[in-house]
TrEMBL record:
One of its GO terms (biological process) is tetrahydrofolate interconversion. This is Methylenetetrahydrofolate reductase. It catalyses: (6S)-5-methyl-5,6,7,8-tetrahydrofolate + NAD(+) = (6R)-5,10-methylene-5,6,7,8-tetrahydrofolate + NADH + H(+). Keywords: FAD, Flavoprotein, Oxidoreductase. SUPFAM superfamilies: FAD-linked oxidoreductase. It comes from Leuconostoc kimchii (strain IMSNU 11154 / KCTC 2386 / IH25).
Length: 295
C-alpha cells in the first residue's frame, strides 16, 4: 500500500482522511465493518483512514491491526495504524512492528498516548519522539505524529510547541495530523509558526463535527479546545433537539473546512466518531468543494 507522505507529495489537491476507533468489544467489529461498507471510502475519494490504538477504552489492540488490514484489503484504501508508547517496551514494540508489517500496513501514527495516571512514567518511551526514533531505526514505516494548534493539554504553554515539533521531525516524522479545533485562526497561527521556522512536513487539519452536547463537553474537558462564542450559542440553541444540533454541527464543520481549503491546507482529517451518516453527508460535499477549487 502507498506511503502516506507520498500521497501528500503527489496529490495536487488536499488529502482527505478520517479516523475510526475499534469497538470496545470484539462483537462490535462486524457492525463497524458495516459502517465502513456504508461509507464506501474508496468511492468517496478518501485517501487514507486512521485507526486508533488503545484510545476510548478499547482494551484489545489487535483490533487496530485487524481493522487497518480490512480497510486495505476490502476497500483498497491506505490505512494508518496508530501506536502509543504508553505501556510499550522495546521488545513489545519490535513484536508489534513485525505483526503490523506482516499485515501489509506501511503507515504508523506514533503517539505517546494518554498517561494512565499523573505519576506514570515509561522510561523507554517518555515522549512520542522516543517511540518515533525507535520505529524509524528499526523499520521502513512511514511515520505520522500529532500536532496541537492550541498546545497540548498537559503543557501550561498555549499554542503550538515549535521545539516539540522539530524534535518529532528530527526523530523521523514524515507527516503530521492536527488535534481538532473549532476556531480556524488557531490553525492559521500554527501554519504561520511552522512556515517561519521552515517546517515543511505536510500537515492535515483535524476537524470534528459536533453531534451532541455530551460529546463537546467530554472532548473539551479532555483536550482543552476552546469554543468560539458562535459555537457555544449554537449548542445552547439546539441542546434539546439532538437532530437539529447534529445538523448545525455538521454545517459548522463544513464551513470550517471550506475556509481551511481556501487557506491552502495540505489535508483535512475528519474525526467523525464512527458515524456513517455524518461521513456520508460530509464527504460528498467536501469532494465537491475540492473539485470546484481546481487545485
Ligand atoms: P508528545 O508529543 O510526547 O507530548 C506529550 C506531552 O509531553 C506534551 O505536553 C508535550 O508538550 C510534552 N513534551 C514532548 N516532548 C517533550 C520533551 N522533550 N520535554 C518535555 N516535555 C515534552 N491517544 C491514544 O491513546 N490512542 C490514539 O490512537 C490516539 N490518536 C491520536 C491521534 C491524533 C491525531 C491526536 C492529535 C491525538 C491522539 N491521541 C491518541 C492522543 C495522544 O496520545 C495524547 O494527546 C497524548 O497525551 C500526547 O501524545 P503525543 O504523541 O502528542 O505526545
Amino acid at each position: 500500500m502507498t506511503k502516506i507522505s507520498e500521497i501528500y507529495h503527489t496529490k495536487s489537491s488536499p488529502v482527505l482522511s478520517f479516523e475510526i476507533f475499534p469497538p470496545k468489544k470484539e462483537s462490535g467489529i462486524t457492525s463497524l465493518y458495516q459502517t465502513l461498507d456504508e461509507v464506501n471510502p474508496q468511492k468517496m475519494g478518501v485517501d487514507y483512514i486512521s485507526v486508533t490504538y488503545g484510545a476510548g477504552g478499547s482494551g484489545d489492540n489487535t483490533m487496530t491491526r485487524d481493522l487497518a488490514q480490512y480497510i486495505q484489503t476490502h476497500f483498497g484504501v491506505t490505512a494508518l495504524h496508530h501506536l502509543t508508547g504508553v505501556n510499550q517496551t522495546p521488545e513489545s514494540l519490535r513484536d508489534n512492528l513485525a505483526k503490523i508489517k506482516q499485515a501489509g500496513i506501511e503507515n504508523i501514527l506514533a503517539l505517546r498516548g494518554d498517561l494512565p495516571d499523573s505519576d506514570y512514567v515509561n522510561a523507554d518511551y517518555p515522549y512520542a519522539k522516543d517511540l518515533i526514533c525507535d520505529i524509524k531505526q528499526a523499520s521502513t514505516f512511514n511515520i505520522g505524529a500529532a500536532i496541537y494548534p492550541e498546545g497540548h493539554v498537559d503543557n501550561p504553554i498555549t499554542g503550538i510547541s515549535v521545539a516539540g515539533i522539530k524534535e518529532k521531525i528530527a526523530s523521523g516524522t514524515d507527516f503530521l495530523i492536527s488535534q481538532f479545533f473549532f476556531e480556524n485562526d488557531v490553525y492559521y497561527h500554527m501554519q504561520e509558526a511552522l512556515k517561519n521556522n521552515y517546517i515543511k512536513v505536510p500537515v492535515s487539519a483535524g476537524v470534528m463535527p459536533i453531534i451532541s452536547k455530551a460529546q463537546v463537553e467530554r472532548m473539551t474537558y479532555m483536550i482543552g479546545s476552546s469554543l468560539p462564542a458562535r459555537l457555544v450559542k449554537m449548542i445552547h440553541k439546539y441542546e434539546n433537539n439532538s437532530d437539529d444540533l447534529k445538523k448545525a454541527g455538521i454545517e459548522y464543520a463544513l464551513e470550517q473546512i471550506q475556509d481551511l481549503l481556501d487557506h491552502g491546507v495540505d489535508g483535512i482529517h475528519l474525526y467523525a466518531m464512527n458515524r456513517p451518516n455524518v461521513l456520508k453527508s460530509m464527504l460528498p460535499i467536501i469532494n465537491q468543494e475540492i473539485e470546484s477549487k481546481h487545485f
